[in-house]
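Repro:
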Amino acid sequence: MPTLISTLKNGKAEFFSLLWKRMDEQGEFPSLSKSVHDLAETMHEDDKSIAEVTGAILSDFTLTQKVIRLANSAMYAGIGGEITTVTRAAVVLGLDAISHLALSVRFVDTLSASAPDSAVARAEMAKALVAGDIARNIANQANLADGEEAVVCALMHHLGRLLLVYYFPQEWSAIEKITSDKSTTESQAALEVIGVTLDEISQEVAKNWRLPKKISHSMDSTGSSGETSIPGSADWLKTMANFAGEAAAVMAQKSADGEELRALACRYGDALLVSVDSIVESVNNAVATANDFTILKAVADPHGKPDNSKEQLSAGVLETTRALAEGMSFGNALNLVLETMYGSMGFNRVVAFLRDGDSFKGKVGFGAMMPEALPHLVFPEAYAMDVFHLSLANMADVFIEDAAGAKSASSIPPWFTAALPDVRAFVLLPLAFNGRPVGLLYGDWGLGTTGLVEKNELLLMRSLRDGLMKLLVPRKA
């Protein structure tokens, strides 16, 4: 079989053009590209807010649930009690940690969904997952606060080889054949077969997806096991990613034994600043749990209010109370309350309207059409005969069961219908300070979903709202 490099007239440029084309045609990795790009853009911003990070994660319900599950895993046990919202996780763990955690979840999910039905692809995917778990365990041993950064680096380190396995299976087979006698490295064989090395593929994708420098640096396999560096630094993460990948490959071999793993751990131990015994333990634990990798468990998307909405709301009230007692800012608390309503009630979207001059404007929102629709969610303070002004004027909580029905038509303002045409039902909870309306909390269900706001659910949402507003009352010295 002729090698791919012999058919490419323009070398590397033509290879990458072909790679992007195949990725686009198969349709899975581009979704990862967008997710990575969105999260990476947020991670690049020095003034990123909890609302922005949380919004990026909450746009995907499955991702949200997995992030929350991981935030409650053994790795973070004892840091901040039980965590039930992404907002709380971001406050407790930090924005960088939660961003990296979400990125690792999205990476694994997309690879799992797009994996070709072949033993080779499944084996390579398994090695990537084990490498990620090894990195998480080593991060624990090194007492890193942001262990998910290490996981992301370990997973992304496999990107070049996974792209070849997925989109160039014949060429990958030829590469494996060349390297079977272990006298030629995979990168040397890749250069011979396709004209680029694995590192070049990884670096080009990192550049294309605008990955943070720490992550793109860790995708380089050269010079990784010698020099000692500070745990969590770019060089340390690169060393860790290389070790995790090599260890996963060693453990995947049927002939692997403890001595080979220990020799590998000895070679990397000084650079990682983790004892050889701890490194070996990290690898063995990762292999032992490989068949129960937490972030691969699926969670279905919501279709209206969940069966345990009251239990979720109750947990949210407790979590909000605890967070407020710890001195959470009003902005973060508002984020937390909205997210609790969003997840607990299975709303299609939630929005906080706040007074801005002589208008009320949508300032923060999660869910469908968010945050793009926020600029269109504006109504004047001047009274009008609609449900929004009635709720504010009377400080009354309101539930509209059929927004599109004739009975509600006269109370629904035109700006609302134009901005959110997919609403079936919605709830309004007015916000007041010193007897003056200052905003509204809003949540809706979309067309095609079912749900009613029951009395105890409304009481629990009121508790969330009331706890939020207490932050505006000055505390006594």
